[in-house]
Amino acid sequence: MIGVREILLEGKISEAMSYIKNIFPTLFDERKELLKVFHAQQFIEYVRIKDFQNAIIYSQKYLIPYQKENIYCLDSRNVIQEVPIDVNFTENNTWY
Asked: Domain range holding 62?
């Protein structure tokens, strides 16, 4: 049986979120920070596979509530960095 770790390592963040919600239905409600990290990672996965249209749509739907908040991630040297979530759009919904 495949576990949530393997699903995450494959970059299937939405699938992992569904898996977790089935096992722990209230986890994301109780741990808002975890939900924010999962949404940020899903955005990163879209960018990683160069699916920019879905990355923009996803960020507009799920990351705007976290505008100007920070998340922690590893940089290329595996050093923890604090990074702001900054989803800025112009009036016609393009990046600026």
From this structure: 4-66
